[in-house]
Hints:
The chain has helices at 3-19, 24-31, 39-55, 66-78, 84-110. It is mainly alpha-helical. The termini are far apart.
Amino acid sequence: xxIAKKRSEADKIFQVxxxxxxxxxxxRLIRRDDAQYxxxxxxxxxxxxxxxxxxxSRDPKNxxxxxxxxxxxxxxxxxxxxxAEEIALRVVNRELELxxxxxxxxxxxxx
Length: 111
């Protein structure tokens, strides 16, 4: 599959994940003959995203950096993780690492 097409599909999936499982778009994707994810898959990914965002005190749909968290959930799912708590924990750890890096970079630039 060409890279541009893969990117386009990933963006569609990402938008659906952020919209939430009850969203009409998810139902349409699930009903497609070539649906990549089942309703249970979407539920697990959404739960992981909500858990991670709750731990980070963020809104999973509109919060700052929610795009990055949703992409991380999808990436971990694609890597084979299927436990919502484990996915959420890894997303939180990654976000905290990025926050620490940003702080360190800000301090470095002030010097």
